[in-house]
């Protein structure tokens, strides 16, 4: 019990990094996801296949491999070390965010793609009939419908990403899991630390879950 | 390509056996997961509120907490727990649990939480008439579950079992932190000794892609087989 109280402030402090990593990756990931979803639904076969294989590769391999390739692997290539990319790739922090962004981007692109595909054709015809141009149709009609459509699945993805940020601890970052591991390996009291750190994760999961539920209600259209 | 030579000069054989290890851990974890899922899905579907709560507690905790944290719990706490139990039975020595068991159990517990939801969903989606008809025909509960409900349930659950398998397969990469020599750990060793992490981690990615691809094909075949007649 003492250890639980003692470790709580340190774990809460590390939670900040976990939240930061989650929010930044999700933020960038949305853009990546929408971008590749548009490529997937477009008519150009070449871009379609690029988007297809991007999502296939990132969803078919473990996140750990992706982080290791980006953090340990890319630094070994000479021209990368001499280019501007090195500013991003030399820090474990930015490497982790890059890996998480690409990972969540792949999953979200699938979610958004299926959301775009389920949009009723009549709606698009109506937009055309009303004389809206392509840009307007996309931002005013397609995107809002797709966002509403993808909320439940995207909520799951947010929770998966929150859990995924724990892998930042494998590239020396001290996020919630990283600090928990440090305390466990110095005190050899895994159960107490697991309860506190796990509890913090569960609270965050709970918040995301309810946030999505609220949004779903907010954006549901009258049937 | 010399790096991948089979034998003493390259890492081909080491990576081959590491891949077998990944498959073995994933299969063991999946098996443990099914066992747990059968128990906890039953609890979740039971009439008693207290049992429902236990089932929900299990699935919420192990689907909401990062896999890595669960692995650390079992890795650092596993042998302590076993020794504690052994002490009750009068054994006082040191017991070490090997990395394979730690890995299979920790991933199995996570995999089981996902499988529980799959089983529960599949049983609930079976028409009530099937239960009623079985009862009217005078089947015992045990028999109609094995002969009527579970076969139908498996067909419905198969696509989701496929998903759980893919998750489990990818989660095994995290066991590398405990030192079990599966694909990730072997790539880490090879990358360290050859100073070529890009090559070995990319190759690890290819191995995982291969495993997910092959298992996807197998599941598609199974799904076709079990949906005959529908």
What does this structure look like?
The complex is a heterodimer of chains A (223) and B (230). Chain A has a single domain (2-219), classed as MetI-like (MetI-like fold), CATH 1.10.3720.10. In chain A, helix 1 (2-41) packs antiparallel against helix 2 (45-60) and helix 2 packs across helix 6. Chain A has helices at residues 2-41, 45-60, 63-73, 78-82, 85-89, 92-117, 121-129, 134-164, 176-187, 190-219. Chain A is flat and about 70 Å long. Helix content of chain A is 83%, strand content 0%. Chain A contains 10 helices and no strands. By secondary structure, chain B is mainly alpha-helical. Chain B has one domain: Orthogonal Bundle (MetI-like fold), CATH 1.10.3720. Chain B has 8 helices and no strands. Chain B has helices spanning 12-45, 49-64, 67-88, 99-124, 128-136, 141-171, 183-194, 197-226. The N and C termini of chain B lie far apart (49 Å). At the A-B interface, helix 2, helix 3, helix 8, helix 9 and helix 10 of A face helix 2, helix 3, helix 7 and helix 8 of B.
Describe what is shown at a glance.
The complex is a heterodimer of chains A (223) and B (230). Chain A has 223 residues and is mainly α. Chain A contains ten helices and no strands.
């Amino acid at each position: 019990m003492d250890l639980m109280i003692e470790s709580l402030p340190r774990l809460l402090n590390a939670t900040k990094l976990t939240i930061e990593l989650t929010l930044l990756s999700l933020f960038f990931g949305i853009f990546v996801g929408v971008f590749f979803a548009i490529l997937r639904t477009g008519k150009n076969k070449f871009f379609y296949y690029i988007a297809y294989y991007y999502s296939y590769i990132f969803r078919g391999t473990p996140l750990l491999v992706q982080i290791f390739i980006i953090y340990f692997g890319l630094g070994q290539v000479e021209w990368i070390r001499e280019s501007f990319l090195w500013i991003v790739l030399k820090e474990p922090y930015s490497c982790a965010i890059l890996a998480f962004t690409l990972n969540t981007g792949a999953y979200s692109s699938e979610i958004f793609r299926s959301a775009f595909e389920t949009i009723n054709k009549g709606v698009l015809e109506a937009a055309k009939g009303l004389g809206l141009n392509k840009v307007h149709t996309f931002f005013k009609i397609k995107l809002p419908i797709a966002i509403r459509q993808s909320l439940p699945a995207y909520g799951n993805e947010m929770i998966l990403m929150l859990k995924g940020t724990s892998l930042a601890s494998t590239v020396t970052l001290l996020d919630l899991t990283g600090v928990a591991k440090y305390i466990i390996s110095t005190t050899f009291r895994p159960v107490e630390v697991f309860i506190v750190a796990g509890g913090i994760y569960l609270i965050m999961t709970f918040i995301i879950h309810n946030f999505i539920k609220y949004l779903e209600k907010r954006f549901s259209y009258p049937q | 390509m010399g790096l991948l030579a089979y034998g003493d000069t390259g890492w081909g054989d080491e990576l081959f056996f590491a891949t077998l290890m990944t498959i073995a851990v994933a299969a063991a974890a999946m098996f443990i997961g099914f066992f747990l899922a059968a128990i906890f899905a039953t609890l979740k579907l039971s009439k008693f509120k207290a049992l429902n709560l236990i089932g929900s507690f299990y699935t919420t905790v192990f689907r909401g907490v990062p896999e890595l944290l669960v692995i650390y719990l079992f890795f650092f706490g596993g042998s302590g727990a076993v020794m504690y139990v052994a002490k009750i039975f009068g054994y006082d020595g040191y017991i070490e649990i090997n990395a394979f068991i730690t890995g299979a159990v920790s991933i199995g517990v996570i995999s089981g939480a996902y499988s529980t939801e799959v089983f529960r969903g599949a049983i609930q989606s079976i028409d009530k008439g099937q239960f009623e008809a079985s009862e009217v025909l005078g089947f015992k509960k045990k028999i109609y579950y094995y002969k009527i409900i579970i076969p139908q349930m498996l067909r419905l659950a198969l696509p989701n079992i496929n998903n759980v398998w893919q998750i489990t397969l990818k989660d095994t990469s995290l066991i590398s932190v405990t030192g079990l020599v599966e694909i990730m750990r072997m790539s880490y060793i090879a990358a360290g000794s050859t100073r070529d992490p890009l090559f070995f981690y990319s190759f690890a990615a290819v191995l995982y892609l291969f495993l997910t691809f092959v298992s996807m094909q197998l599941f598609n075949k199974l799904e076709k087989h079990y949906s005959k007649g529908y």
